[in-house]
Amino acid sequence: MPLTLTSPVLAEGQTIPVKYVRDGENLMPPLKWTGIPEGTQSFALVVEDPDAPGGTFYHCAIYNIPPDRDGLPQSIDTSRDNALSYARNDFGNARYDGPQPPAGHGPHHYHFRLAALDVPSLNIPAKAGAQQIWKEARKHMIEEAQLIGIYER
Fold first, then answer.
1. What is the pLDDT of residues 45-88, one digit of tens each?
2. Which domains does the chain show, CATH number per domain?
3. 88-99 burial, b if ≥16 CB within 10 A, otherwise e?
4. Report field, pTM of the whole predicted structure over 0.70
5. CA–CA distances in Å: residue 105 to residues 51, 60, 108, 126
6. I need a surface site. Which of 32, 61, 88, 142 has the fewest CB within 10 A?
7. How far is residue 69 from each of residues 34, 96, 106, 108, 116, measured CA to CA in Å?
8. Closest CA to 42 of 138, 121, 112, 114
9. DSSP label at residue 54
10. What are the b/e assignments for 41-51, b being 16+ CB within 10 Å?
11. Which of 14, 46, 29, 15 is nearest to 153 (CA)?
12. For residues 41 and 71, is the Cβ–Cβ distance under 8 A?
């Protein structure tokens, strides 16, 4: 069974509810995953917008997620779960910041990307930023799953 990422509040390719965008309540949507591959020692998750005018924009990076987890509750980033590490996103915050594309720029596709890793932790300081976290995670990736939501202003 392949690694699969889902959310009870977001269907693949559908509009992200306003509750989960930066102009709304700015809550991170709850996520669930199944099909954890053998050898997984941790997970990393990023939320990115490849449609941003200046290139891919990172909205969130959570890493060192324990291998026994099968999901994240709504707004896990605000609970400050001590088992997790949060990298600085492109807004400059070590948390989730939801979609906020430029008005009139058309629909943006937000990729929630989960990587199963072959190491128990990534030894990178959070100040490195989400993009650097994802680059390092890809070196240790066993398998990846993604969920894409759409939003426009």
1. 999 999 999 999 999 999 999 999 999 999 876 666 667 888 99
2. 4-151 (3.90.280.10)
3. bbbeeebbbbbb
4. yes
5. 9, 21, 8, 30
6. 32
7. 10, 19, 35, 29, 11
8. 121
9. T
10. ebbbbbbbbeb
11. 15
12. no
| Statement: residue 24 has pLDDT above 70 | yes
Joined tokens for residue 39: 């050898």
Q: What is the pLDDT of residues 92-136, one digit of tens each?
A: 999 999 999 999 999 999 999 999 999 999 988 768 899 999 999
Residue with tokens 């309540």: 25
Strands (E), 2-84: 4-6, 31-34, 42-49, 57-65, 71-72
Residue type, 25: E
For residues 83 and 120, is the Cβ–Cβ distance under 8 A?
no
Q: Which pair of tokens denotes residue 11?
A: 């269907």
Among candidate residues 39, 19, 40, the one with its CA nearest the CA of residue 28: 19
Q: Which amino acid is at 44?
A: A
Task: List 143's β-bridge partners, or say none.
Answer: 116
In the block, which residue shows the tokens 């959070």?
126
